[in-house]
Batch of 3 targets.
Target 1
Amino acid sequence: MARFNATVAAATLTENLAGGEAYSETPELELASLLLTSFAQDQFYRSADATFAQMRGLIRALPDKRFAAQAGIFARNEYGMRSITHVCLVELCQVAKGEKWLRSAVTAAVRRPDDATEMLAYQLATYGKPIPNALKRGIADALAGFDAYRLGKYKGDGHKLSLVDAVNLTHPKATPQLSALMTGTLAAPDTWEVRLTQAGSDVEAKRKVWADLLESDSLGYFALLRNLRNITAQAPDSLPIACKYLVDPERIRKSLVLPFRFFTAMRELKLAGVPGFVLGALSDAMEISLENVPTLPGRTLVALDVSGSMRGVFDKAAPFAAALVKRLDSDLLLFDGRGRLCTINPRDTLSSIVEALTATFTGGSTDFRIIFALDRPYDRIIILSDMQAWVGYHTPREAHREYKARTGADPAIFSFDLQGYGTLQFPEQHVYCMAGFSEKVFDVMATLEEDRAALVNKIKAVPV
């Protein structure tokens, strides 16, 4: 899953989920943050059900419901967010009935046939029947546009709600491929998943499938990364060619796989006892992915929250921090209830830096004022946190002002809300509220200082 955004013109003092003082976001900014950070799973301060309830309230609070449609499409199509966008579009269909744009918005958010089945499953589980017309017709339009390959790949056999069920519920315009789906004559697509399923429990057949997939270059980059353990166990002789693909710069650039994915894969594969050269390839691939991080002029501070509430996202935040520090030659501040500047050797590998940062995780309290206790002037400060401060129960606004007066600096502050909890620590004009991780966020950071409304403006430009 990435993001960027702008300043809050008029922030209202509120209380965050940790009980501390904070500033409320606008409904638009809060919804965007939620969509771009939530994977529909429980978080430290909020359960998945509470996340859905928050989204429901935000959509209802929006003066222009079209923004929710644009935000859902943006999150799904630009950043690959799935479950949370399904919830967004279904909830929108409950409160924006009759809007002419709603049907086409649903269609635009259905990138794959299983988006349709997931939306319908959420609708039926949450609201039952009748299915809102815009949801039904928007999904029907999308299903009619899929080719046989996509329909076959995402048939959903074995799921509670299959693609056949979706067709029966929405009645899309008949196409030859949908007719084949409904009559059971749709040929199974030639995908690696199908080929492995057909191999069954035959050890030699599985080995041959993996060997053929790799030798014919028929396995996507993310699928390769995800299946390294299986390849190790079922086709170890094919590992050298797998590693060759892993470190291919062009594949890495096109894959959009984030640095934390490599670190997560390395951690899991170490426990699986894979050969050392596989871990080495992952480390090299992680290093190559740094080319996606642009160099920014001036002096940068990266402030990484190591408090207890960060436990669920630290395995993503640490690689991101390491990448920024190494690529930008930044200073690094670890903070919870206290702060400590760390010196990073730029010649260390990204994976070794991440390991070192992970070892420093303390799980303490959170005090944002520490960030502004430094005397060094910075051009920008990048804060990686869930924004749930409670030490002293006050925002760092006064400390921020004192820092500017003391150092003469007025840095741009990129405040990454890693959990999308919906509150801010900074209402200042040079503070940019960000959310999540993606290659695209690096592109935007270079221009955010000039465009303070980047995220909301980008979302509002989405055609509906």
Target 2
Amino acid sequence: MERKIVQVNAGFNITESEDIRKVTLKLAMPSIVEMTMQTLLGFVDMAMVGSLGAIAVAAVGFGDTPIFTLMAMFAALATGTTAVVARHIGANEFDSAKEAARQALIIGILAGIVVSALVILFASQIVSFMGADETTRPQGIKYISIAGAAMVFLIISVIMGGVLRGSGDTKTPMIANGIANVINIAGNFLLIYSSAAYVIKIPIINIELSLFIPGAGMGVAGAALSTALSRLVSCFIIMCVIYFGKTPIKFSFKDKYRINPEIIRRIFKIGFPAAIEQLSMRFGQMFYGRKVAMLGTVFYASHRIAITAESISYLPGFGFALAATTMVGQYLGAKKPDMSEKGCYESVKLAAIVMSIFGVVFFIWPQSFISLFSREPEIIKNASKCLRLVAIGQPFLAAVMVFGGGLRGAGATKWVLYSTMIGVWGVRLLGTYILIDFFNLGLAGAWIAMVVDLVVRGTLNMHRFRKGQWKYLRV
């Protein structure tokens, strides 16, 4: 049987139905590898900071949560850029795709400068709002002040990474973040700990090597500085590739970088509801985390470590969600809505299979994951219960992420906003307060509410996608 080929960008072909799985995997795998590296970074960060004690873990949590709340909002704006770029690429309108990308860069630079300045100025108020007590507050302020200064680089990286993914280039963000992660791990080791001599014993040949490694002994501040430097490196690599590398979206210093209100309006038409959705979800998670923090430092540290351990299951969901976003956008641009639908369903199926396997592992061997980050018996006990609970929700988490990605790729970001507000605020947050305050279920109650939220949002996103109205949206 003859196969038809659709040219969707300068460097990537999407084929007809018999190869839809191959296309899905080709788009998803670099993003999964990228997320794997970022998750390993999170593991290393948590393990290194965890060695400093529960106060240090809580301080990093108080700093990271608001930073990632802001970052998620701009990642959502990147979704608007991804959708616009993907439509133009699918229609072979490369000049329009490049113009949209330039406007995204202008947004990223201006917004990044403003956000970095605000985080530094209000570091104390942010940490206090998160519920930090007197023992964790100084460390939390120090962490968020340093890491917040690099928000401008993080925002540019996220938005321009979205541009590249919309063009089908998922490898460049993977490489940039991989290099940055290696730098972060090395920086952690050199900046967190003090100088020390280590003795390495080589088995069989019975040789001992003495190794002296210098260190700044900065503790939590060292972790923040290392993170900030890695974000600078990632931003630098992505921009170098866009200007000097081989990629479907390529800039020149001779390009005109004037604000184009029409293109920015199109980006914000999709990106603004997505940003409000992410902001709503992150603020809901902040209040959620704040409620958990009221249970005490040990419970909050257990909560943070359980979330870090669970984050490994996000890897396939994130990768297949990005694949769905790109395929839906490009196929709609190529006037092939049925292929958009088929690509998204394939992404959901693959994500659900892999994430369900993770769920089984979480349920049977939770202590093995938790012990990577803490040796404190109370933390291992509490966090293991949390991991077993969230294991049940893994297939629904796949539906939340990937159907949401498909709807975003089509520009149907308002519905994802509605489902997020219902799930996070109406189910997770309200349920947490009820289960903790009225049923005295403590940390377990908070995680039960989280699982119910995943079930509700996964079902809502699947229902909306199946209705098919997203096929007729214009972006």
Target 3
Amino acid sequence: MGLNDTPSSERIHIGFFGKRNVGKSSVVNAVTGQELAVVSEIKGTTTDPVYKAMELLPLGPVMIIDTPGIDDEGMLGEKRVKKTRQILNRADIAVLVTDASRETDQVEEDLLALFIEKEIPYVIVRNKWDLLSEPFSVNEQECPVSALTGQGIHSLKEKIAHLVNTDVKNNRLVGDLLNPSDTVILVVPIDKAAPKGRLILPQQQTIRDILDAGAAALVVKETEFKSILDSMGQKPAMVITDSQVFARVSAETPEEIPLTSFSILMSRYKGFLEEAVRGVTAISRLKSGDKILISEGCTHHRQCDDIGTVKIPRWIREYLGVPVDFETTSGREFPEDLSGYSLVIHCGGCMLNEREMRYRMKCAQDQKIPFTNYGICIAYMQGILERSTRMLPSVSTYLK
């Protein structure tokens, strides 16, 4: 994906599901207009989920996901089916591809039930329509197509496009808290963990949202923050900092200036801010030997002082004064069974779409495991959580 492309987390995720040999990959290729997936008469050709970021008109930026057959067999088959089921947790739209020459069977009915249970908008594709001698009538959630001839593919794309309203999401990172011509100072450390030659995604997205609000973004390192703040003729409307330098920036920012972090704003944007604030108080109740899961939504080369695997565990042990255990996950791996943990601390989730972040939060809620994120965890331990969320009234009740 190029530097100017829409991030994966901001794309509508469309998962194509179905049994082996129903022409699922052929339908994907027909919809995308590309040879995205290998097709064959041999069952189980698709062995792992295939992702493709693209523009799908009239929907816009999407992530197409072709999945292995839901009826795959054997030990490897079970692992592939598990991966397919995991895709359901990040799919904004589900497409069930079936063979029009036969009735829907129990495996497919069970898959439909999962779509409904997880509240995923879906469409049922009746593929191989061109082979029917006597076509039958379909309901409004079905779409007859032929991946071979292209019949019905345009109608399928239109139906997919109308399953979600891209204008509904009104979540903002910070722009709705600003007025035109406001100035916001962004504190961005440039250390060993900073990517060479660029800013990380939450920083980029925050800058864009500030500009969309008609405000100005002033980006500085923590070492220059105090002198630049003191030199300003007018106080900034807000200071947003990287969580790793929260304590320093808080000490140098006058109390009357609103202060928060990129991570806290990202939890707001992804829809789990309130749960993260409610869950963070569990840190004070941790006991010796308790286990904490630290989960990141991306995979990256970890530096010697990595925030997730080194800094946060160290800060928590120092805060508690007792030994606790930590386990980490990264990327798309997230355990469904959280019963062995006393707390889940997640990154901001900038690389995950909102549906997946809500799924992870829901896994913790259902098992009554407290769930929070990096920025809120750090602010809590440093005694500045109330201050760093003061501008966000929806969480004030959890801090009393």
